[in-house]
Every structure is written in structure tokens, then in C-alpha cells.
Amino acid sequence: MKRFAALFNALDATTRTGEKTAALAEYFRSAPEADRVWTIALLSGRRPKRIVNATELRLWAAEAAAVPLWLFEECYAIAGDLAETIARLLPPPERETDLSLDATLRALIAQGGRPEPERRSFVTGVWAGLGPDERFLFNKLMTGGFRMGVSSGLMTRALAQATGVEAAVMAHRLMGDWDPARTRFADLTEDGGAAEGARPYPFALASPLEAAPDSLGAPEAFLAEWKWDGIRGQIIARPGTFAIWSRGEDLITDRFPEFAPLQDHLPPGTVLDGEIVAWGGNAPLPFADLQKRIARKTVPKKLLAEAPGHFLAYDLLEAKGVDLRGAPLSERRAHLESLLAALPAGLPLTPSTVVQGDWETLAKIRATARAQMAEGLMLKRLSSPYHAGRKRGDWWKWKLDPFSVDAVMLYAQSGHGRRANLFTDFTFAVRDGNDLVPFTKAYSGLTDAEFAEITRWVGKHTVERFGPVRRVVPELVFEIGFEGIQASPRHKSGIALRFPRMLRWRHDKGVDEIDTLESLRALLRQVSMPGPTTAD
């Protein structure tokens, strides 16, 4: 753990990409092989399952630190991070051990499902043998809150430096479903080391279009298509293998059984990139219908009938086993349309609709996106290859402006990490007659300076405390932006928002000028009906 902690501290101490890449590359050259595999897994989001909850950790840590629980809770409220609070409060280690990252994680995983006394004995025993830095990381790994501030692209470049493998090739080798407990470093970094059959390609990503579209040049240089509101995915149809992957590298084949017939009709050696949507016969259904299926590992027949899956194909990445990603989009798209045209009718697979026109015409088409159950338009340069990750300049997402409402802050809670001493997580309400009804939470969209100003205000205007949460005087009004709205019986307001965030602090408005619950209900009715919709 000492070597891993040293890497973490080196990465945390700099914001320079070159220095982070060099530190990671040296680690990948010199660390024990098994530790390198676990580090790759952690940096790519493959974290061990939690074996202990936060309540248990607080109780165990307070006892190990010989402090009353109330004092531990006060320290936690100030630090804002449970892992850091525990690492700082525990007494110096009785003995310092230097277990490898691999040994530590394997022992941690082995505690899953064991009785509380056994897990408690294991955790406190590990604490007793670790220094503060190692304890902090061990706590992060236990709670599932481990973050290292390293993008997948940066990690891939570091691995490429350490191994001499081209970065794009390395990115592909790291994709797919692999278990760090059973995977060798060579399986990830050497050609043919791991099973290639079901492995997806790294997804190409688009950048948000913030300037006017005509700043991109001639519209004839771009392919414009709808930006669908679904699940980005890849269909892999290789000899002996059929798999469906989400952009988050989740294998979701079993969650969409209606796609199974595709394996009988797609030519072997085919990889498609596209969007999975719930399908209403000839057009997508609202995302809320697809959302009912996302968390389910098995889908009941009733839900399959109500929200059947459909794949809207954007791109052809592989044909007859040949990697096409380096070819221009114009060629890949032509191959895609030819391939899909040859398939039997009635399959849950069609090409994503292309839209055409000058920039003014495309802007008018974009304005109708919500009526199409889309979020806007995608603009892709016809000469572009299929990049790994985000390469600014070729692919753009030209989304509609978000919906927005004005709401008042009711509750405030401190953030985590570098914002642990600031109130950054807020609950907002709208008016319902003479009452204020909470309807959403948001924690992003403001500057650090604004969060600092709000924190000072909260300190002077707190009405009531509930642990780390403060109820405040309902005075501060904010414009809340969101991408979608749906009915939700789980919320008091009866409404749930999609991707809520704070667009701006409305210093110019008072609580008597905020929106009403009825206006939100009217918006919900509006977006649930066919036809174009607009945000206020």
C-alpha cells in the first residue's frame, strides 16, 4: 500500500498532465504486476463491492480512536469526508505493515457477507498496521469513494509509455468485462492476451457546441443526426460471440433479450455503435420508459411489451472482422446503411435518421427535437475517423437549451473533498399555494466564490440542523436547469427532474416570484404530449 499511496500523493500534488502521466508510467513499469492490474481497474471504475456501511465505520472508528460518537460526528461534519476523518482521528499505528495493494484488496473482498464481528476485527486490524496515508486510501476503497483525478485517457497514455504499445491500441485492450482478481498484466497489455471476441471499442465522444454552428464552416462538411435520449451502446457480433455493451462498459446483453435475433442476421465480424431507446412502433418513447428497464437484470414480459428496446445505429466500426475506425465517417456511414438495408424487415435495428439543410434549416429542425424524443442534434465531420474518447473539433453535440424554473433554497449541506468546508448541496422548493414544496436537489453550476458567499449566508440564516443538513430561511432564489421531467410517486412533489443543476443565482428575484408546482405539472403535461415543446 505504501507504493500505491506514494503514487496517489504524487498525482494529488500536481495539476500538470505531463507530470501525472510520468508518475503513472513509472508506477506501471516498476510496481508489482498484480498491483498494476488493480490500479488499472481502480482508475477505470472497477471498484470492489462495499463490505461495510458508513454507520458501521463510524462506530468502529470512534471506538478505535477512543472518542465519543458525538465528537466523531462533529469532526466528520467539519472534515466533510468520512475516510479522511477516520484517518486523522485514529491513533498512530501499533505496527506498520506494508501489504501490497493486491493482498489488501483480496483480503477486503473476502470479507463480503461475513458477520459484523469478523468484518470489524478485520478492518480495525488493518487500521492498526497502516500509516495515515495508507489508512485514508484503505477507507476510500472500503466505502467505494475512491477517486484519483486521472482520466481514462491519461491512464492509457501512461500505459502506452510504460509498455511501448500505441495508446489507441491500449485503450481497446482495456475495454470489456475483466476481473482484476483473475487477470494478468499481460492479459491487458499484450496482443491476444485476453479474449478478443466480445471486447468493445472505446467510444468516440462529442464536445458541446457553445458557439454558433456556422463557426464550424460549411454545413455540407458535416453529417447531422438526432441526439437521441437513450443508452449509448455497441453491438458486437463476432464469430461465436454476441454481446451488447453500454458506454459505461456494462455488459447488458441479457437486459435486452429482444436484440437476440440480431445475432442470426448480422454478418460475423460486425460492430455497431448507436443508441438504445424504448420504441413506440415507429419512434422512440420518452426516456422515462427506458429508465424502468435500466436497473433490472431480468425484464418482465409486461415491461418488454410496454417499452421494447430498439437500436438506432450511428456508426459501423467493424465489418467482416476489419476495423473501420480509421476510415472517414462518410465511408463508414455508407457501409452502415448498405449493411442494414440488406437485413430482414422487423428487426429492432435501424439507422439513426440523418437530417439535412443549411445552418438556418438545421436550427429550425433542432427546435423540434423534444417532439422527436431527442435532446438536439449531433454534428459529425464527414471526413473524421472514429476517435477513441473525445477529440475536439470533429464531433459536436448541439443540444437544446435546458428547461428552467426559479426556485428557493430550503436546505443546505456541505460538500466533499476540496469543498468539504463549503455548503454546495442544496434542496430547492417551488410554491404550492401558501406552501413551499421541495422538488429537487442540485449541487453544480456555481463558482467557488458563489459557494463561499452562500456558505457565509447559511451560517447566519440557519433555522434548524439535522446532522450535516441545515434548514435555512427561504430567501435565496436560483434558476434551476434540467434536461427532462417525469412523474414520480416517490417524491412529495410528484415530480422528478433529469440532470438538475443551478444555472444562476437570481439576486434579482424574491421568494414571491418563484415558480409554482402547478407550472411544473403543466410542463410535465406538455412534454408528455406529442408535438413540439419549449422551455420557459
From TrEMBL:
<keyword id="KW-0234">DNA repair</keyword>
<dbReference type="InterPro" id="IPR026333">
    <property type="entry name" value="ATP_dep_DNA_lig_pp_1105_fam"/>
</dbReference>
<keyword id="KW-0460">Magnesium</keyword>
<protein>
    <recommendedName>
        <fullName>DNA ligase (ATP)</fullName>
        <ecNumber>6.5.1.1</ecNumber>
    </recommendedName>
</protein>
<keyword id="KW-0233">DNA recombination</keyword>
<keyword id="KW-0067">ATP-binding</keyword>
<dbReference type="InterPro" id="IPR012340">
    <property type="entry name" value="NA-bd_OB-fold"/>
</dbReference>
<dbReference type="GO" id="GO:0006310">
    <property type="term" value="P:DNA recombination"/>
</dbReference>
<keyword id="KW-0131">Cell cycle</keyword>
<dbReference type="GO" id="GO:0006281">
    <property type="term" value="P:DNA repair"/>
</dbReference>
<keyword id="KW-0227">DNA damage</keyword>
<dbReference type="Pfam" id="PF04679">
    <property type="entry name" value="DNA_ligase_A_C"/>
</dbReference>
<dbReference type="InterPro" id="IPR012308">
    <property type="entry name" value="DNA_ligase_ATP-dep_N"/>
</dbReference>
<dbReference type="InterPro" id="IPR036599">
    <property type="entry name" value="DNA_ligase_N_sf"/>
</dbReference>
<keyword id="KW-0479">Metal-binding</keyword>
<dbReference type="Pfam" id="PF04675">
    <property type="entry name" value="DNA_ligase_A_N"/>
</dbReference>
<dbReference type="GO" id="GO:0003677">
    <property type="term" value="F:DNA binding"/>
</dbReference>
<keyword id="KW-0436">Ligase</keyword>
<dbReference type="GO" id="GO:0003910">
    <property type="term" value="F:DNA ligase (ATP) activity"/>
</dbReference>
<dbReference type="InterPro" id="IPR050191">
    <property type="entry name" value="ATP-dep_DNA_ligase"/>
</dbReference>
<keyword id="KW-0132">Cell division</keyword>
<dbReference type="GO" id="GO:0005524">
    <property type="term" value="F:ATP binding"/>
</dbReference>
<dbReference type="GO" id="GO:0051301">
    <property type="term" value="P:cell division"/>
</dbReference>
<dbReference type="Pfam" id="PF01068">
    <property type="entry name" value="DNA_ligase_A_M"/>
</dbReference>
<keyword id="KW-0235">DNA replication</keyword>
<dbReference type="GO" id="GO:0046872">
    <property type="term" value="F:metal ion binding"/>
</dbReference>
<dbReference type="InterPro" id="IPR016059">
    <property type="entry name" value="DNA_ligase_ATP-dep_CS"/>
</dbReference>
<feature type="domain" description="ATP-dependent DNA ligase family profile">
    <location>
        <begin position="311"/>
        <end position="432"/>
    </location>
</feature>
<dbReference type="GO" id="GO:0006260">
    <property type="term" value="P:DNA replication"/>
</dbReference>
<dbReference type="InterPro" id="IPR012309">
    <property type="entry name" value="DNA_ligase_ATP-dep_C"/>
</dbReference>
<keyword id="KW-0547">Nucleotide-binding</keyword>
<dbReference type="InterPro" id="IPR012310">
    <property type="entry name" value="DNA_ligase_ATP-dep_cent"/>
</dbReference>
